[in-house]
Fold this protein.
Amino acid sequence: MVARCHTLAEWLTWQESNHPNAIDLGLERVKTVAERLGVLTPSARIITIAGTNGKGSCVAALEALLAASGKTFGAYTSPHFLHYNERIRLAGQPVSDAQLCEAFARIDHARGDISLTYFEFGTLAAMDIFYREPLDYWLMEIGLGGRLDAVNIIAPDVAVLTSIAIDHEAWLGNTREQIGREKVGICRPGIAFVCAEPDPPRSVVEHAAALNCRSLWLGHDYRLESLNVNGQSQQHLMTSQGQSLNVSQVTLPKASVAAAIEVCLLEACLPQQPVGVLAQATLTGRMQLLALPKGRLLLDVAHNPASAQLLADELKRQQYAKLPATVAMMADKDIAQVLAPLLAQVSHWYCADLAGNTRAAKAVDIASVLVTLGVPAEAITCVESVEHSVAQWQSSDTTSECLLVFGSFFTVTAALEHYA
């Protein structure tokens, strides 16, 4: 049945109810539609990025480096924060509503009686839009896993794996070996493979070797090292081609940035001053500072134990004093393991509800976890929303100039909707 949609909002609302499952891993349906659209053999080079954490940062770094090299590119990422258009970008800029609506109409016509998920519609829209542009590169971020993710219908020229940690166990497995096996499924025989996971599971190493991939491994072929230069500690990237780059001032996660640099070295498109380019690169919701009339918000989407540890490490590296924090999370996450790395760096906890989000944990349940972790009850406040936590912090805390807001993409989005 052909959809009768005219606006982007109508298309997205229809897509949310079109398929019986929000997540339906598998490639047969979406690949059939992609073949009908004729988008699976682009002239552009395809770079596919998978990983538990750090995918978005790697894409952001690649966008900055490719732009500085004069390359044309499109990028597909998910989820979005304020506008769906953020998911599909050309030269770093979101595509228009009209481009999306036209792509969705073409997909709807091509699918016939094949049912597609919301994510599959978006993936096909990105491919359809990119195929119609004279692009040098497509940057395609995996949404979930790798092997059975819709993005994996198209073969990459370069595959990137940023990290492997326990997350999305219901779909990917509950061990790093299982999760790694799913994520390395983006590889194809003989292609270049850049792995930014310093401790890759055996499943990843063996699969890349079985496919005879031209692999570059963090810690072996390229390295991040702390050096003492004139009495100052600096973090340097030792590239696979022998360069030593001081990446101390780069705020994006260093492993993801290192992987992006290695990709550009493979593609012979690294700009002359890559560190200067990357020092200016930022990403929404990753250590993002948002100035308010009173104080600042520090926004981070950390939502699993590994990303929470990265957040804690970055707070220490940037020498943040103890600061108050708002946390709102999904109930299916390991809440205790996410909160634990940040206990020593938070002075007061505002546990927030996310009204209308059926996946979200209740504020009182997050507070209960904090108590079991040893946080005194007087250092915990339950609030009905993220914006209420900000208002309460502004009215009651006269010592801290910054409030950390973290726990999920939904948490950061709630802050951005009210204060951006």
The mean pLDDT is 94.
